[in-house]
Amino acid sequence: MEKRTKLAEMVRNQHDVILKDWVESQLNATTLRRELMKESELREQSREFLSLYTQSVQSGEGIGDAAWKPVKDFLGQITRSRVLLGFTPSETATFIFSLKQPLFDVIRSTLKDPKELVADIWATTTLLDNLGLYVMELHQQNREEVIHRQQEELLELSTPVVQLFENILALPLIGTLDSARTQVVMENLLQRIVETGAMIAIIDITGVPTVDTLVAQHLLKTVAAARLMGADCIISGIRPQIAQTIVHLGVDLSEVTTKATLADAFMIALQRTGASVTKSAVSQPKG
Amino acid sequence: MATLRDEIFPIRSSDDIVKVRQVTREWALMQTFSLVDQTKIVTAASELARNTLEYGRGGEVRIQAVQEGPRRGVRLTFTDQGPGIPDLAKALQDGFTTGSGMGLGLSGSKRLVNDFDIQSEVGKGTTVMIARWK
Ligand SMILES: Nc1ncnc2c1ncn2[C@@H]1O[C@H](COP(=O)(O)OP(=O)(O)O)[C@@H](O)[C@H]1O
Ligand SMILES: [Mg+2]
Q: At B50, which CATH number?
């Protein structure tokens, strides 16, 4: 309760910054269909969502909670209108997923305690993933007739690379990884490592239902390439059943740091970049 | 042995591989497999479906939900009319690949299931049968 109030307060206090960053990132997203929607409309929708989101964060735990109904109703409304406008599911879901980075930035610049930071980032990423998937589902329900193409997109969707902290990037993957899309996603991560000079990249596979040898090979190749560029990867989201299966397949992940959850991986990453954590979080808080 | 459900699915594209995984998971769930058992059979299905597509030039899979006494299982039979495998023993070795994979698909799936049978004839094609029991 206390924690939720704090999260909500944080968002409320930084409302304008978040809104500005969020709208900007939506406008910059490759998935934005400018021809389909006016910028003013996008801004209005974002503002309304953010205010509903803040209220629900304060009063309800998961999105199954009744407190999230206003948010879900609102998403239902904009999803329907986007379906009619001809948006694809991933274009619609970008509305939610692009909110991650602005929220993370605010949490990061507000919280000093790494434990709290991890907990809040974890809570926020889980919420937004769930809302994003909810939007995708809604979208799908709204367009039965082109279900096939959309299923493909649902499967191929992956959330963007986010910066969790100075020197730490995260790539939360959702869906199947055996398409040409994987290549793009992985290249994107490497590109971001170059741009940000990140020391650690966390690849979170919580949202990947099946890890077969092709997926494992993609992951290992990415880890090796990242290493050549001076960044270490941590693979998180390895659930027990996935761990067992990987071992039976005979895939050797012993050279890679693996963790059960993104939060665990983030803790390790903070430890490894220890010096800079204390410096940036305590002595020079960012605004 | 009783067959509770029996269907054939084509394997012609990578979308079909996704479909095979989905159906396998669904049927494993229907057979009340544990999460670990589901994951194992789905992963093996994914490996073999991809081999059918990549090396067998496409084919099909027959999926069966079976019951033998109190045991419930899911059986998959992958068939293609591709080039066949000249040396089965070699193909079943960890790390052997004629493509650019990890060479762990056949050997790995064998370890993930209870029953494994492979028949192949050069110039005729390949059939791989796997089953996992609850
Ligand atoms: N259906 C098939 N038809 C022809 N050759 C196959 C088939 N399945 C497997 N093979 C052969 O067996 C080898 C090993 O397969 P596998 O263990 O899945 O490893 P990988 O897919 O990484 O090559 C393949 O490289 C290929 O030469
Ligand atoms: Mg293979």
A: 3.30.565.10
